[in-house]
Structure formats: C-alpha cells, structure tokens
Design goal:
Elements (H helix, E strand, L loop, with lengths): L2 H28 L16 H4 L5 H4 L7 E2 L5 E3 L4 E2 L4 E7 L4 E5 L5 E4 L2 E11 L5 E2 L2 E2 L2 E8 L9 E10 L4 H5 L1 H6 L7 E7 L10 E8 L7 E8 L3 E3 L1 H10 L20 E4 L7 H8 L2
Parallel strand pairs: 1-8, 2-16, 11-14, 11-15
Antiparallel strand pairs: 3-6, 4-5, 4-12, 5-7, 6-7, 7-10, 8-9, 10-11, 13-14, 13-16
C-alpha cells in the first residue's frame, strides 16, 4: 500500500471510530426517560404525557414538592423513633441523580407506630422543597418502605435541607466513589458497610404532609417529613454531584407543585412546651 493511501485509510478509520463513539454517546443521552430541562419534550412539564402510568405527574392532586409556609401549619408534638444501623450498600449513578442503596436491613423509622424500612438515599441540587419561599442549595431524600402490604401509605420520605458552608461529613466519605461514576449512567460501585446514622438526619422539629414521589411516576400517598434543621454542604461537594450526573440533570429539582388545600403539620419532637422562643428560629429561616 502506498504511503499516501495508508495515511488516508488511517484518517478515515479514526473518523469512523470517533463518529461511532459520538453516536453511542448520543444514544445513551437519548435513552433517558425524563429530564429536568425547562421546555424539553421530556422536561417536568411533560412528565405526565410521556407514559400512561405517569399521568399522576400532571393530574395528581397531592404532588410534591411544595412550599412549606409557617403561618399555615398545624402544630403538633409527637416524638418518633428511628433504628438505623450499618449495612452493606452500593452507590449508583442513575443518570438523573446519585443514589446510595442498602442491600439489606439498614434500620427503620417508625411513624404513628408503623415501621418504614430505609431503602436508599439520593440528592437533589438545588432543594426541591422550599420553606417560606426560600430554596436551599441541596436536599437529601431518605426513602423508606413499609413491609406491611396492608398499610395504605407504604412509602415515607425524609427530606434534609442543606445550605453552603462546611463540608457535609457523609458526602465526604463518598467523594472517591462519586468521582468514579462521573458521567457513567447506571454505573454502580460497592461501598462496603455504610451507617445511615452518619447522615445525622435528626431534627428537633419537622414538617409533615401527604405528597408524592418527585420523579416519575409521581406516585401519591407518600408520607413526607422535611426537617427544619438546615445542615451545611460545601460548594465543591455540590459541584461534584452536578458533575457526576448527566447533562440533563445538573439541576435536578422538580418545580413546586400546588398545595391544593393540603394540611401541613409542624411537629416538635424535642422542644418541650410550645413557646414563641421555640418558634422564633423558624420565623427567621
């Protein structure tokens, strides 16, 4: 083969190779079932039209997230019990978020005497829920399921809000694992034993309301608990989460949904008597 012919063949081969890789990358991107891009054919405004089983995303009357406004809540006092414990877990890049999933019994949260077992946690940037109109920099969701098939509301989610500040210790432990799945949809890595208590999800007070999943199929009947205690996360930790997911989920917060006259309860689990001194920090949020 002449030298010029060989060079031409090599160039064509490289073009074919890179072209094929570009097509494969595009196929991975187009494989997404939904995204968070405003105005996109698969964006939040269109979720309810994408599949019949996702119709609750547009027709539901108890959708999440919502704004939690203090003057409109019903005050309650009721301690709740958690029994979280260490167990083996994996970290997965689901394309639209980063999730830590436990492989077995990682403990439970008890709500009105019903057990809800912890399944997984994931992150949204910025926060999905707002408090008195304020949106925070990040929100962690702890997803629980009741093992009792006779329970009417089998899913319970705890929302933990974060603002920019000191690094979050739990995310710091996952830094290397998150870095290893950057841009790799469906990639999963073993984390070994992970203790849910390291999330430090306790709060002296919390909001409670009935809502839905915040991703398709937007299933309703979810018991939502959103802590009033706001934790801190570093800007670099948020940037890593955004870098890890695919481009259509860099900001993976669903827009606020109508309240539709739902009751919002504010529980005080460790404050003691309800006084203005106790309430004042919430008015300043």
């Amino acid at each position: 083969m002449k030298k010029s012919t060989y060079v031409l063949a090599s160039i064509l081969g490289l073009l074919f190779l890179f072209g094929a890789n570009s097509v494969n990358a595009q196929e991975v991107e187009d494989d997404r079932e939904f995204d968070y891009i405003k105005g996109s054919p698969k964006g939040p405004e269109k979720w309810g039209d994408l599949k019949p089983e996702w119709s609750a995303c547009k027709n539901g009357r108890m959708q999440s997230p919502i704004d939690l406004s203090l003057p409109e809540v019903i005050f309650m006092s009721q301690p709740e019990r958690t029994t979280y414990k260490p167990f083996y877990a994996t970290l997965q890049n689901r394309g639209y978020d980063i999730s830590v999933q436990w492989k077995g019994d990682a403990g439970s949260r008890f709500i009105n005497g019903t057990e809800y077992r912890l399944q997984q946690v994931h992150w949204h940037t910025p926060s999905e829920h707002t408090i008195n109109g304020r949106r925070y920099d990040m929100e962690l969701h702890m997803v629980h399921e009741s093992p009792d098939v006779n329970v009417q509301n089998r899913t319970a989610v705890v929302g933990v809000l974060y603002q920019i500040g000191r690094p979050d210790p739990f995310l710091s432990m996952l830094n290397a694992s998150i870095s290893s799945v950057i841009g790799k949809k469906d990639e999963a890595v073993n984390l070994g034993v992970i203790n849910p208590n390291d999330i430090e999800s306790g709060s002296p007070s919390y909001y409670r309301y009935m809502g839905s999943l915040t991703t398709p199929p937007c299933t309703e009947g979810v018991i939502w608990t959103v802590n009033t205690k706001v934790k801190t996360v570093s800007r670099s930790q948020i940037n890593l989460l955004k870098e890890a997911v695919l481009y259509y989920a860099k900001e993976n917060a669903r827009p606020l949904q109508p309240r539709n006259n739902r009751d919002i309860f504010l529980y005080f689990s460790r404050f003691g008597p309800l006084t203005f001194t106790n309430l004042q920090p919430l008015y300043q949020m």
